[in-house]
Design a protein that fits this description.
alpha+beta; two-stranded antiparallel sheet; elongated
């Protein structure tokens, strides 16, 4: 998500495509992996990385949930441009 952004600006099928777009436009922010067809909350719980409380989570909690266990990459103004396809 971009610096000061309230929602993601784009979704990519590969890390390489996301990195290329970030560098093409000189963007800053975080590129975060999300599972398909399930919430980030459900994915983290299924991975055994988060133990939910016995009571059901609130809608507000689910809507804002993210986890450091989701693969993510930070980009800032000092990051050199990379060519798509370079090893991570």
């Amino acid at each position: 998500m971009g610096v000061r952004a309230k929602q993601p600006a784009a979704i990519f099928s590969t890390l390489e495509l996301g990195k290329a777009w970030i560098h093409q436009h000189g963007l800053e922010g975080t590129l975060t992996w999300y599972p398909l067809d399930m919430s980030a909350y459900a994915w983290v719980v299924a991975q055994g990385r988060f133990k939910p409380k016995p009571e059901a989570p609130t809608p507000q909690f689910l809507a804002g949930f993210s986890s450091a266990y989701q693969p993510h990459h930070h980009y800032g103004p000092a990051d050199p441009p990379e060519s798509p396809g370079l090893a991570q």
